[in-house]
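Researcher: Sequence of Major facilitator superfamily (MFS) profile domain-containing protein follows. Predict its structure.
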Amino acid sequence: MVENFSGASTARLGARQWLAIGALGASFLVVAADSTIVYAAIPSIQRALDLSTATVQWLMSAFLISFGGVLLLSSRLAELFGRRRLFTIGLALMTAASMLSAVAWAGEVLIGARVLQGIGAALIATTALPLLAIALGPGPARVRALGLWTLIGAFGGTTGLLLGGLLTDTVGWRWVFLVNVPVGIVAALLAPILPADRCGGSGHPLEVAGGVSLVGALTLIGWTVVAAFAPGSSTGPALLRLAAAAVLLLLFLVIEARTGRRLVRPGLLRSRTRLGGLVVLFAAGTLIDAVLLLVTLYGQGALGLSATRFGALMVALTLSSVVGSYVGQVVVVRHGLRLVALTGMSVAGAGLLALAMVNGPLDTVDFLSVLPVVGVGAGAAFVAAQIAVTLGASDADSAAASGLSDASFSLGGALGLAAVSAVLVANQTELPVPMGAALPMAFTVTAGLAAIGLVAALLLMGQQRTPVPSQGT
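Model: Prediction complete. Tokens:
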């Protein structure tokens, strides 16, 4: 019961609170790290399972599409089933999917397991932080724990790259997935000590059916867009997927009209600034994941970097993006959303163009010189766009706005992976060594994706400044 956790703010934390922090924090770290941990292992997986580059991008796209889609629905599921129950379901699903990924004998099996991982990760990501807040109650303990939570989210991607490279080089790529299993099992065993929140049963099955329809439609649309970049793609299956998506969207609208509590209130998307923020987030997702895929294929292929050295190299991108996000938060207060988003996307795009224009083969010095520039720009644009999406949202709309924000970034990542994979496949056949004209062209395409975010920031985002927090809060 929630009452078992009361008093955490006025007394020292007890054993139950510490166990709750450990279980929830470790689970969230796994989710954050899983967004990048597979990248270092991609060349090894490609060789072991004999995958084409067109198939390789699905190792990440499958996760990103299912994760982004379910994020829109999971807050409503939490209202119906309760956060603790949904958290436990997410743990079980992600643990089972990780075990299946580790023993995958074919690319199709691994991609299917990655879809399940994305769903489980979305359920964990939505429920873990609210459960932590309930467990600790108001006061200093919660503030300190939330600070730790921010650090986990900020450095989770870096942790994934470093850990993924180390595991791949030492015990093999299958351990990139197996490492999730003990964490999931221990966290699931500790789940009964988490607070039984009072949200369970407050939702309605009809609302969930509407959410499932929307997630299904978004998934089909994302699948169609990503598959359109694959070589040999045909029109027939794409049209069937789009037709099915249209039917699901119509079903969603019918259900939303009949229920009193809508998943996404129409007025939420009437704000030009919020729409601009969603597009900027989508663009930021495309360029970050595109760069990660390009550098892992080129670095471990053409440059002969080990998976561990690749992970260390990519810290230049992930850590600089954290720096950019913190700087962006400060600058937004004084100069507004549009300027930060515009500057961030311009800086990131310029860095990508610099990589595309290098004469001759790229080396680690080139990457170490430019990746921090791309990271700082993308981080600043990301935080400005995220603020734009959530700023002004009412308490009732905050969950939907947050879900839209995360979904836009994840679905954008899937598109970025597909776009650069198509460029590589169209320009050469010997992979994973993107050389010749393929790599500069791929970086040029990625810079073009950044330009989409720049235009959205210029035309849609306002000059709003975020309020400066008062000293008493």
